[in-house]
Amino acid sequence: MSNRFTSISEVINEFISDESFRDRFEKEISDKRVAKALFAIRARAGKTETEMAAALGCGKATIQALENAGNDGIKVSDLVAYAQACDLNLTIGFHGANNAPRSGAS
Questions:
Q1: φ, ψ dihedrals at 25, nearest 5°
Q2: Number of domains the chain contains
Q3: Domain CATH code at residue 81
Q4: Domain containing 86: what range?
Q5: Taking the CB of residue 54, how many other CB atoms lie within 10 A of it?
Q6: Tens of pLDDT along 12-32?
Q7: How far apart are CA 16 and CA 85, in angstroms?
Q8: 26 falls within a domain
Q9: Which of 8, 16, 39, 67 is in the most buried spot, having the most CB atoms within 10 Å?
């Protein structure tokens, strides 16, 4: 008889010890980081998908696709447009995986 799970947490806890599952899971989470940031930015700005679509001159389906896309499905121009529509500026920086971003040059 198969297990019946009542939450995603139960599924993750059941399979997280499986190295292959854990690697795929972590990659999937990492690959959606930018898309989830777009959703958070829109939500903080108090904009609906429809309002964001109007601001970007596209359809609601495009907003949904961007907010669910993998990192390689999002262009820098998408990020710039999202930022502008939410009265933000886009800043791109590089830092090590274990280091916080640094401001200014060393």
A1: -65, -50
A2: 1
A3: 1.10.260.40
A4: 33-92
A5: 15
A6: 777 778 788 777 877 777 778
A7: 39
A8: no
A9: 67
Is residue 57 situated within a structural domain?
Answer: yes
Give the integer Cα–Cα distance in Å for 102 and 39. Answer: 25
Would you state the pLDDT for residue 83?
Answer: 94
Compare 80 and 4 and report the one with higher pLDDT.
80
Helices 19-31 and 33-44, axial angle in degrees (round to 10) = 40
Q: Residue 106 — pLDDT band, cuts 50, 70, 90?
A: very low
| DSSP string of the chain, one letter each residue | -----SSHHHHHHHHTTSHHHHHHHHHHHHHTHHHHHHHHHHHHTT--HHHHHHHHTS-HHHHHHHTT--GGG--HHHHHHHHHHTT---------TTS----S--
Give per-residue pLDDT as tens, 45-100: 999 999 999 999 999 999 999 999 988 889 999 999 999 999 999 998 887 877 65
